[in-house]
Amino acid sequence: MNSWETTMMHGVRGFFRFAHIDGLIHADPAVYARLPKVHRDKTRTQGLDRLELIRFLQVAQTITVHHGALAYLLGINALRASEAAGVRIEDYADTLRGHRVLHVLGKGNKPATMPLTVPVLRVLEACRGQRTSGPLVLRPVSGKPIDRRDVYRMVARIAKTAGIPRHISPHSLRHAAITNALDAGVPLRDAQILARHADPRTTEHYDRARGNLDRHGVHFLTAYVAGV
To answer: How far apart are CA 225 and CA 222, in angstroms?
Structure first.
């Protein structure tokens, strides 16, 4: 059963359910109908390839330091729009096992701690300036803290300036961070930690090279068993 047929069956089940609730029929004939889960092979989000992501990050820094910090939080640390808007200067003041880290409160109010690489820390510090506390990314003109809508507008401006011809959203940057990490050879388990996905199957959908036979596990297993 394909996704279109599954959608149609949902409509049929809903029709009979409400007909039964309204007393138009004595019993719901579709109550025991079970539908298979449809797993899409890939996400629908339009991400960015490696060169587009590089250009996006570079261009963002030429607009304002706030655009630069936002771009790196989304495109390297894979933050969601609301998470990036909520980052405070105090959130990345700690050092853990030699790494400067960022504390975020993610989806479902789940706390997460992630390392900040030198390029990311550099743009965050440029955005911070002389400030020691408070929201990190501000509206460049008013100096007020950004919200989710500002994140969308700032991302759209960066994409337009970078000459990316399609619609790019904050999730496009998160998508790009995950897909490019997988393209770079980051193991699925580590990419899952980067994405903060509860289920590794969700992360697997971002892997654009799943069908690449050159990367198939049999090559690594054969070399391992052969002692190569």
So the answer is: 5
CA distances from 5 to 2, 37, 169 (A): 5, 12, 30
Chain segment 45-58, per-residue pLDDT in tens: 667 999 999 999 99
pLDDT in tens, 81-108: 999 999 999 999 999 999 999 999 988 8
Residue in the structure block whose two tokens are 């996006």: 56
pLDDT (tens digit per residue) in 127-142: 999 999 999 999 989 9
Q: Is the pLDDT of residue 41 over 50?
A: no
- For the chain, how many residues are written? 228
**Distance from C-alpha of 181 to C-alpha of 85, rounded to nearest angstrom:** 23
**Tokens linked to 220:** 């690594």
- Report the distance separating Cα 82 and Cα 67, nearest Å: 15
Q: What is the 3-state secondary structure (H, E, C) of the chain?
A: CCHHHHHHHHHHHHHHHHHHHCCCCCCCCCCCCCCCCCCCCCCCCCCCCHHHHHHHHHHHHHHCHHHHHHHHHHHCCCCCHHHHHCCEHHHHCCEECCEEEEEEECHHHCEEEEECCHHHHHHHHHHHCCCCCCECCECCCCCCECCHHHHHHHHHHHHHHCCCCCCCCHHHHHHHHHHHHHHCCCCHHHHHHHHCCCCHHHHHCCCCCCCCHHHCHHHHHHHHHHCC
How many other CB atoms sit within 10 Å of the CB of residue 163?
9
Strand partners, 115: 101
